[in-house]
Design a protein that fits this description.
This protein has about 220 residues and is of the alpha/beta class. The chain has 7 helices and 6 strands. Helix 3 runs parallel beside helix 4 and helix 4 runs parallel beside helix 5. The longest helix is centred in the middle third of the chain and has 29 residues. It starts with 12 loop residues before the first strand and ends in a 7-residue tail after the last helix.
Length: about 220
């Protein structure tokens, strides 16, 4: 395998949630290209997860797929345990999976609110709690949460999603200070509008797509 020399992660183990498609898939492939052994994740067995794993195994046969619904409270810690059991440890955790439900604020149901907060915030905390002890033992760890432009510019029909991402960012700010002395970094990456399958319907509106492009200072798309 031709390892990316600039970011050599040979010997490191990573778990990327929500990595059967979109940004999560790209992150998983990037980590594998740098030499890490990667556990890719999907809510349940699916063709997209199989295809992602097949791409990863072109880079290394060690890469594995794990499944579990992060809206279930017992699943986050179990996913970390599964990744560690399959790959012999965990050095890198990428909390990418999220649930986004567009609903006017007055119509948000309790179930919708709880699902988004569980997947987008609570699951992140539980996975970090499960992963950090092994990272502390090695004095090395990397934790990345995938945020959203919504944590800065909330959409009126995504009040709970935006709030969950703001909570996740605050969690990162808090834990980064606590974990730094242990050699563990914690960061939040908040991308703008990316052409993933989730955003295809919105970006199919050319007026909206043009407005998004106009907000990119470099004009490189």
């Amino acid at each position: 395998m031709n390892i990316n020399k600039r970011f050599n992660l040979t010997g490191r183990v990573a778990l990327v949630t929500g990595s059967s498609r979109g940004i999560g898939r790209a992150i998983a492939l990037g980590l594998a290209e740098c030499g890490a052994a990667v556990a890719v994740h999907g809510t349940k067995p699916a063709k997209a997860l199989d295809e992602t794993l097949a791409e990863l195994r072109k880079l290394s046969p060690r890469n594995v797929a794990i499944t579990g619904d992060l809206s279930q409270p017992d699943v986050p810690a179990r996913l970390v345990a599964d990744a560690m059991a399959a790959l012999g440890g965990l050095d890198i955790l990428v909390a990418n999976a999220s649930v986004q439900i567009r609903t006017p604020w007055a119509e948000v149901t309790q179930a919708e609110a709880e699902q988004q907060m569980q997947v987008n915030f609570h699951a992140t905390l539980r996975m970090i709690q499960a992963a950090v002890p092994a990272m502390r033992a090695k004095k090395w760890g990397r934790i990345l949460t995938i945020g959203s432009v919504q944590q800065q510019r909330p959409h009126p029909d995504m009040v709970v999603y935006a709030a969950s991402k703001s909570a996740q960012e605050n969690l990162v700010r808090n834990l980064a200070k606590q974990f730094g002395p242990d050699g563990i970094t914690v960061n939040n990456l908040a991308p703008g509008v990316i052409l993933t399958d989730r955003n295809v319907p919105a970006l199919s509106d050319e007026v909206y797509a043009a407005r998004v492009r106009d907000m990119i200072p470099s004009r490189v798309f």
